[in-house]
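Subject — a protein and its fold

Tokens — whole-number codes for backbone shape
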Amino acid sequence: MEKISVVGLGKLGACTASCLSFRGFETLGIDINQQFVDDINNQKAPVLEPRLQEMISGSEDRLEATLNFDRAIDETDVTLIIVPTPSKEDGNFSDKTMREALTSLCQSLKNSHKKYHLFVITSTLSPKTCEKVLIPLVEAVSGRILNHGFGMCYNPEFIALGNVVDDTLQPDFVLIGESDKKAGNILQNVYEKMTENEPAISRMSLVSAEITKISLNAFVTMKISFANTLTNICEKIMGSDLDHITTALGNDKRISPYYIKGGLSFGGPCFPRDNRAFAKFASEYDVNTPLAKSTDEI
């Protein structure tokens, strides 16, 4: 079976690499953190996440880690890049670490005689980043042309911390933004072998996938905020029952029962920042987003 490389062995990357290897892929993990690399090579989970150790232990000898970016190009034909893209002050996502990782990989690709390499961008990006920043960077550093010497996919994950392994193996759907059909076909083939269920696979342009990622989280947080507004109302009206109300709302197929329960405000590393990123991106095209702004305020 194919050998795949994963750049970034943090919470998401370590789980993705271990799931790939558990499901039969020869997998090479790459990180600049020596401890993460040593842990993987000693068959230890580098981060705390349920079932991660189980995946690593069940990978037999298919999972290996290294500090050497050259090996991703020399030994694999598909590289998933899962590195931090923190929020900037203006609300957009920083692509600094992504650019650094791609530059290291493309310096190796420039000296390689291989005909093709597929870069899969998994980290969350602001829309148009692939087209305006990452593809020109790869072409400039590697000396290759998109869809000839390399391909690119944008393939963000939709997971919850504490459930990363299960969400990776049994996703609700897989989102693939593709530079061309060849790139998309390669990545779809990987998912068909890795996943334990048969998820819907949504394939589209790179920029459509970038917009889909942040708009999905923005929409989900609107549902959460609406449910919590109902909570505030029901607390003031004697005899009203929030759970009865939200359960009834969830029976309508236009709404569905997911994320329409009253509770704590949304949090975590993704939800709080994605409405701001959505609003910032839209404002650059002179589109106002009062729903996203209000959700962030709520």
